[in-house]
Amino acid sequence: MARFDYPATGAWSAGQPSGTRKFLNFPADRPIALDSGKTLQDVTIAYETWGELNAEKSNAILLCHAWTGDSHAAGSAEEGSPTPGWWEGLVGSGCAIDTDKWFVVCTNSLGGCQGSTGPASLHPQDGKQYGSRFPVITVRDMVRAQVRVSDMLGIDVWHSVIGGSMGGMQVLEWAITFPHRVRTLVPIATCLQATAQQIAWGAIGRRAIRLDPKWQGGDYYDAAIGEGPWQGLAIARMIAQVTFRSDNVFTDRFGRELADMDADYNGLGLWDKFEVENYLDHHGDKLIRRFDTNSYLIIGKAMDLHDVARGRGTLQNAVSRIAAPVLSVGISSDILYPTYQQKQIRDMINDVGGTCEYVEIDSPHGHDAFLINLDQVGKPLTDFLTKHAI
Amino acid sequence: MVRQPGLKPTVPAHLRVGMWLRFGGATGRTPNAIPRGFTRNQQRKEFSNGQI
Predict the structure, then answer these.
(1) What secondary structure letter does DSSP report for A299?
(2) pTM given for the model
(3) ∠ at Cα B52 (A19, A303), nearest 5°?
C-alpha cells in the first residue's frame, strides 16, 4: 500500500464532473503555431463566463489567471472545481467587476491542467498523455490561444483584459501583440520581462521536480496512487510559496512557534517542525491534489521566458505598440515582483506617449495580496473600468 | 439529552465544550498534550489564497 494517497496527477480529465466549465475545440485543420516553431493540434480551451454579452458585444472582459489558477475565477467550490473562484468576491453581481454590467470570460491557459490542452491531455495521434512530448510554450502562445477563443465567442474587442502575476504577463502580451483588440488593460503584480531572480526561483523548483525519480522524465501518468512525482512538485511549491509572501506576514503568523505542543516535544529533534513548515507542507499537499506536475513545469517555464521585447528589438519598441489606456497595479510588500517593475510599466508606456496610471496595494501579504486584499484591488479597478466605459 | 425542568446548567454550553476540550476531549490527554486548536491551525495554513 502506498504511504501517501496522492494521485499521479491532479489534472482534470474528461469523464470527471466539469462543474461550470465550458469547452471550445479548435478545428483540427487549424493547429496553433508556437514560438518554439512547433505546433499543437486539436487544441481545447476550457473557459467559464459570467454575465451576458450585450448586443453590441462591447461589454466583454477577459480575466487571465496566475500560475496554478484556472478558469474558475468566481463561484464557490463545487464538484469539478475543488476550490472557490480565485477572485470570488471581486467578480459577481454588484462586485467590483460587476457581472450585471460586464460579460466576464476566464480561460484556463494553454498548457494548464483544468480542461485546456496541456501535458496531461491526450495526444491526438495515439490517445496517450502528451507527457514529455508537450512542447515548451510561451505566454505569447497562451494569448494566441485566447485570441482563438475570442474569435469563436464573436468578441472582436475586449473592453478590458485583466490579470495578476502570470495573468498580468498575458495582459501585456495582449496589449502589444493585439493592440487593436483591447480597449483597456489592467496588469497586476507583473513585469515586462522576467528578471534573473524570478528565473532563479523557477529554476530551483524545476530542479526539485527533475530530481524526483518518480517524475520519469515527464511520463508518469500510469503511476499508481502515491507513485507519482508528488515529492518534487511539493518541494517546488514550498519554495514558490515562500516567495509569494513577505517576511513580516510570516513572522506575524508563525513566528518561531513549533508545530506540536506535546509535553515531550521540544523541537530539538532534527525533523521536529516549526509551525511555518506545517504551512509549507500543507500547500505542497494541496497542490499535488489539484495540479499536474508537467503543467507546473511548462507554465513556470513560460513565465521565465516572458519577455515582451522578444522578437521586437527593445522594450521601448514593444511598449510603443500599446494603444489602450493601462492601469498598472503593484503591491507594496511583493518580493517576487517588486513595485519597481510595475512602475517601470507605467514609466515606459507614458514615455512613449501612451497612457498608464499606477496604483499600489498597501498590504503585508506580498505577491499573494492581489488575491487577498480584494477591497484594494476592487476600488481602482471599478474606477478605471467606469472611467473608460463606452 | 433532555434537560430536566428547573435545572439550569451552571456553565454555558460553549464554555462546557471548551472545558471538555481543554481537559483532553475524547483523547483523554492532559492539557499540555492538547494539539493546537484545529480551527486556528487551519486558518494559519489557509491564510494564503493558494491559487497563484
Answers:
(1) H
(2) 0.90
(3) 110
Q: Which of A92, A108, A143, A120 is nearest to A21 (CA)?
A: A108
Give the pLDDT confidence of A202-255 residue by residue, as tens digits.
Answer: 999 999 999 999 999 999 999 999 999 999 999 999 999 999 999 999 999 999
For β-strands A60-64 and A103-107, DSSP reports them as: parallel
Which neighbouring-strand residues pair with A104?
Answer: A50, A61
Q: Which residue of B has its CA nearest to A69?
A: B51
Count other C-beta atoms under 10 Å from residue A193's C-beta: 17
Annotated catalytic, A165?
yes
CA-based radius of gyration for chain B: 17
Minimum-distance CB partner of B45 among A66, A165, A282: A282
Neighbours of A383 (CB within 10 A): 14
Phi-psi region of A5 (alpha: psi -120 to 50; beta: other; left: phi over 0): alpha
Enter the ipTM.
0.74
- CB crowding A63-76: b at 16 or more within 10 Å, else e: bbbbbbbbbbbbbe
Q: How far apart are CA A154 and CA A60, in angstroms?
A: 10
CB burial of residue A207 (10 Å; 0-12, 13-18, 19+): middle
Taking CA A294 as the corner, what is the angle to CA A43 and CA A13, rounded to the nearest 5 degrees?
Answer: 55
Q: What per-residue string of b and e applies to A245-280 under the rule 16 or more CB within 10 Å gives b?
A: bbeebbeebbeeebbbeeeeeeeeeeeeeebbebbb
CB contact under 8 A, A367 and B35: no
Neighbours of A236 (CB within 10 A): 27
**Phi first, then psi: what are they for A93, rounded to 5°?**
-65, 120
3-state secondary structure of A97: strand
Residue A306 C-alpha cell reads as: 516572458
Place of cell 494539539: B35
Cα(A239)–Cα(A242) distance, integer angstroms:
6
Q: Which residues of A touch B48 (CB under 8 A)?
A: 241, 244-245, 279, 283, 368
- How does pLDDT run across B6-50, given as a tens digit for each residue? 555 555 565 555 544 444 445 444 333 333 444 456 666 667 667
Half-sphere exposure of A150 (CA within 13 A, CB side): 24
Question: Cell for A365?
Answer: 501579504
Quote the pLDDT of residue A3. Answer: 61
Closest Cβ–Cβ partner in B32, B35, B51 for A371: B51
- Please indicate whether, in this complex, the C-beta atoms of B52 and A262 are within 8 angstroms of each other: no
